[in-house]
Amino acid sequence: EFQKKRNEDKDLISRYESHRENNESGYFSQEEFESIIQHYLDRGKNRKALKAVNHAVEQYPFVAEFLVFKAQAYSHLQEFGVAISILDKATNLHPGDAEIYLLKGNIQAMNGDHKDALESFEKALQYSDDKDEIYYSIGLTHQNRAEYNDAIGFYKKALEENLNNENVLYELAYCLDMTGELESSLSYYKDFIDNDPYSEYAWYNLGIVYNK
User: Fold this and answer.
1) Ramachandran sector of residue 181 (left: φ over 0; alpha: ψ -120 to 50; beta: rest)
2) pTM
3) 132 to each of 57, 97, 163, 164, 192, how far by Cα in Å?
4) Choosing a second label site near 34 at 20 to 30 A (CA), which of 6, 47, 116, 176?
């Protein structure tokens, strides 16, 4: 099944690139364009991804997903201001889309606009049922401002939503260490392991506490 999908994707990219080389318009479905753009983004071919997005928008001018792809490509090129303005347009098309606000917040944080990033994350929380990644992003933003206690609070909220978010566990341990609270967090990790006995990261962090 995996090999079949891989071959289909390869054929799709070949067909798309053939059309472009021969200046043929050709029809591609929205799903096909999404696969083409993701293919280029995954390989760091951001300029090619942008060209594919522009072709997609010609066919599907009111699809917010293509604006999101466009913003991702510009953020990979470190053109953060352009990416943020594109996401502003995307939120006008889909004002209740949490993923757009989350991406916007992450790009604002990368651009050093931490206050704006936190506002975007708050909006994402309003519209999302899956909050752990949003709490994680809020925690990272506070961590990057050396606000470790605030970060700890949001990392713990993220873990309440999803015990298996290993990135959160790693960053939480770092912030606890920075505040000198790692040793006093022993009971927290023991409780965590009671809830998830197979969490490698929780056991690893518990081991660090014992070795302090």
Assistant:
1) alpha
2) 0.84
3) 32, 16, 9, 10, 16
4) 116
